[in-house]
Amino acid sequence: MALITETQLRTQLVKGLPNPFPVKEEDKLTPAAADFLKDRGIAVVRIASASSADTIILPVNHMTERKLIPVGVSNRHVHLSPEHINSLFGNGYTLTPLRELSQKGQFAARETLTLLGPRGILQHVRILGPPRGASQVEISRTDGYALGVHPPVRLSGDVQGTPGITLIGASGAVVLQEGLILAKNHVHMSPADAQALEVTQGDRLIVQTLGERPLLFADTIVRVSEQFSLDFHIDVDEANAAFLNTGDQVQLIGRNGTIASAERG
After folding, report:
1. In a domain, 62, yes or no
2. End of a domain among 183, 198, 225?
3. pTM assigned to the model
4. What share of the chain is helix, strand, coil (3-state, %, to 5)?
5. Is the separation of the CB atoms in 262 and 43 below 8 Å?
6. Judgement on whether residues 10 and 91 belong to the same structural domain of the protein
7. Which of 17, 42, 69, 218 has the fewest beta carbons closer than 10 A?
8. What percent of the chain has pLDDT over 70?
9. SS3 label, residue 232
10. Cα separation of 16 and 115, whole Å?
11. By the 8 A CB rule, do 90 and 80 touch?
12. Which of 68, 101, 73, 76 minimizes the C-alpha distance to 239?
C-alpha cells in the first residue's frame, strides 16, 4: 500500500496531473491530497490491483475533463489610430510588420515609441498593428511605477476615465488625454472553441496554472470572435508571478465563481 500526499501531488504539477487521477485500490490518499485534487477539479479513479478482478471508477462531472488553454504573455505595447501614426511618424506613414501575432491579422510592428510619464520614461515600446479607431497603451503595474502613473485594470477598449500618457515617435509627439490601462487578463477564442469549452462571451473563467507555482486566475473574461484563436492573455507581471511563459498551458477548472468538482460515487 502507498500513501499519496499533497506534497507528492504538488511535485507532479510541473508535468501536469492526469484528470481523472488514477489511484490503486490498495493505496490511500491523505485528506489534504484529496482536497488538493478536489480544489483543482480533478476526479479520482480507483484502478484494480493485480489481484483484483474488478475496477471501481468514480463518476466524473463533465466540467472536470482536462481542458487546457495556451498562454500568451503580453509585454507593454501601444495601439495607434491612423491620425496618431501620422503625428508620430509623418503624414501617410504605414506601420511595418515585424512578426505575426497569435490573433489573425494582428502583428508587432518594427516601429517603437517612447512613453513619457510624470516620473520617468520607457523606451522601445512596441507598436501593434493594424491601426485602431482610438489609441491605447497597455503596460504592467511595474511599468506604472517607473512612469509615475497608476492606471486601472481594464479590458482593451474600455478607456473612459483612464490616465493619459505622452507618446514620442520618430517625427513628433502625441499627448493622450486618456487610454493608459493595465490589461485585464482574458481568453480569446473562436465560437468553436467556446462550444468545446462550454463557455460563452463574457463568462468569467477560473483557470489553474500547472507549473512550480500553481495559481488560480479567478476572473478571466471570455472574448469570442470568428477572428480569434484560443489564447489566455496575461501581462508580464502576472506571468512572472505564476512562472508562465508564452506557449505554456493553463487548465480551465470553473466559471462564473464556481469551481467544477468530481461527483462522489
Report:
1. no
2. 183
3. 0.74
4. 20, 35, 45
5. yes
6. no
7. 218
8. 89
9. strand
10. 40
11. no
12. 73
